[in-house]
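Q: My collaborator sent me two sequences in one message, no labels, and asked for predicted structures for both. Can we handle them in order? The first one she listed is below.
A: Yes, handling them in the order given. First sequence, followed by its structure tokens:
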Amino acid sequence: MAAPVVHDVRPYPIADETFLISWGIDAPPVGHFPVNSLVIRGREPVIVDTGAPLVRAEWLDAIFTVVEPTDVRWIFLSHDDRDHAGNLLALLAACPNATLLTTWFAIGRMAEEWTTPIERCRFVNDQEPVDIGDRVLVSVRPPVFDNPTTRGAYDPTTQVYWSVDTFATNTPHPVLESDQLGDDDFRDGQLLGGRLVAPWHRYLDQGKWDQCVGAVRDLGVAVVAGCHTPVIRGPRVAEAFELTRRLPAVDPWREFDQHDLDGWMAEAGALAEPGAPTS
């Protein structure tokens, strides 16, 4: 079992004036997971989610190759998990003209670690629009989530949907676009990610779940960007929604247990012995 490897932080254009800020981390033995944020650079630039502390300096550098700090008007925080909110205070400090789009509950949960400047906040709940100058950004909760404060963001101008942790997928190696994956890797990754994020999938009523997934699918999404997925577009958007719709009928994922950990540690010890192969 190799040590995790963090991959480069870089901006990647995915639609008009819309950029993924992409990095990732290897997660043996299942492969690699992307860790992304989003920038919409329109008339009133928006940063969607604030990255993880592990790559704070690199993440801020990448963000500010796309937009000037003083130009940022909005920071949309999908929820308070560390890979989404980890650089929030640093970003607020760097962007003095930005208003934080968040929720009452998220601020309360973050209060365990820091005080969010309430005077710079605007509460935006599920289904609420925000006028950002040349477009309206709509808060839309995704079907799969692991945090009760989660809200996604839909931009009708580009038909880009920030799906947060919905459509999370492991990949065999770092990729930016889902069409770089084979059919099996895409399908298996979607089903693994969905079960990892939402182990409650087995408790769902299929009829109610169909309505939940369909409400987001029917927005007319053309491009999906999410924290832990390569960009999804074209026919794979419909496929991703359909795989998510099937989650209630999928067997739970078998979690790694102590037997797995013992095996990994034994392998690591054997590789560390003098003269042992290092591949």
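Q: And the one she listed second?
A: Here it is, processed independently of the first:
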Amino acid sequence: MSRVLVTGAGGMLGRDLLAVLGSRPDLKVTAATRAEVDITDAAAVRAAVAGHDLVVNTAAWTDVDGAEEQEAAATAVNGDAVGHLAAACAATGARLVHVSTDYVFPGDGTTPYAEDAPTAPVNAYGRSKLAGERAVARFLPETGYVVRTAWLYGAHGPNFVATMLRLAEQREHLDVVDDQHGQPTWSYALAAQLVALGDAALAARAPAGVYHGTCSGQTTWYGLARAVFALRGLDPDRIRPTTSDRFRRPAPRPAYSVLGHGRWAAAGLPPLPDWHTTLADAFASAAPPAPWKVA
């Protein structure tokens, strides 16, 4: 029986990951929230990793705007702490699956970014996450896996889909940016993909390195908002397109965050389905307290 450690287990993705792993009687799972394991503490990380065959790291500094003013603090979590995890895994022989971000790219592309495309983050958050990717590559060149994701939504945390539904109850019309392109990704679907990659890693079927864990296809925030309203039975025309310069933020956002999925074939796994499909699945299968489900 393989032993799996999930760090960041209290977050949106972490909780979905535990739900997926909970259906696997062949795995013994240890759930570690931030309160239980501080991944910035190297000694605590070594103790937590000991005895596990696979570590899935979903712990992260996720405040993109806050990272602009506190880059050192963000890098301590997203970079240095990932190095602690990777070093601990290297010492014990455990595999590591680490979740990263599309923000490592500059966002000026016009075709999907391949897994080996040059990185050039445009904000502090992206730089902090790239530091974590490099730590995995340095300590675990043969047994480390980086899965970049983007535009996550799910039942267990604040996200764009939940925000749109909350605002739908407060406003007649919503202005949503139509000049940022990406791939809406259901956290539960990503969790299942991470588990599948972990299985392949433990069986030595998956080459180490970078994979892109986003849903297929692409849209804008405006397109996603319209799809959310349609699935909820609301009038999509209540959503009005606007531009990013109407919503100034401390951290610049990439205009184009569409990722390619070519490396999944090397692991013998299909990429995630089209974002329309998984959005519909999320609305159909999620139970309360999911924000899109009426109790």
